[in-house]
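Hey L., structure's done. Input below.
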Amino acid sequence: MLRNALCRLSSKTGRVCAATSGVVQRALFSTGPQQKHGTFYEFRTYFIRPDQNSAFLKLTNEKIHLRTAHSELLGYWSVEYGGLNQVFHIWKYDSFSQRAGVRAALSQEPKWLGEYISKAIPMLTTQDNEVTYLVPWSQIQSPPKEGGTYELASFQMKPGGPAVWGEAFQASVCARATPGYGHLVGVFHSEFGPLNRVHALWWYESPDHRAAVRHEAHEDARVVAAVRESVSHLQSQSSKLMFPCSFSPLK
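Output:
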């Protein structure tokens, strides 16, 4: 209807209709708010051989400085619940060209290759990565104090993007974060890896603290109503409870 109205208004020249037609189509096919910069976060999950878990963490603690000399590490965690013998880490990049440059430099770094990679790779069974962006309404928020535990809650939404489920998902997260049912560190939307996936990274004082506030939130009518609206767009979800490693910037 809007397009037809624009066409009628521009019938004398025909040119405005052609231009505005593109504007209307872009609006109709928009998938939601877009971020304004190129910064992205790479999620990496390493699956460790059960008999090598302690050795891998010790080696990484000793040699991670060789890696952080090249790009920013946001956090590094050992997974306690929701996945055994796993570590999860987040790396920040300003652009894809920066990441490519970092990877190229690391491939030529003798100490990194000889002192870490050659020893670490045999300790692993699988590696996985995912590229994510912060959602437009989220910023990285450090915990109020060091220590504690983190939860990575992952939601596989139905296809369609934030234009379909974005508002409902935001409402469900904010309904928990605003009253203080956990400290929200950041919310991330996948770009490479499984699409239509959103991750919420939470901080709690302890696993027992997490259990207590979850119980309290489930009795909050506002949270229940927001979650019910959001889950109509949900396909599946999972979570991991994680402890930060001693060398993790987010502790």
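Residues 53-68 form the longest helix (16 residues). Strands lie at 40-48, 72-81, 86-93, 124-134, 149-157, 183-192, 197-204, 234-244.

-- N.
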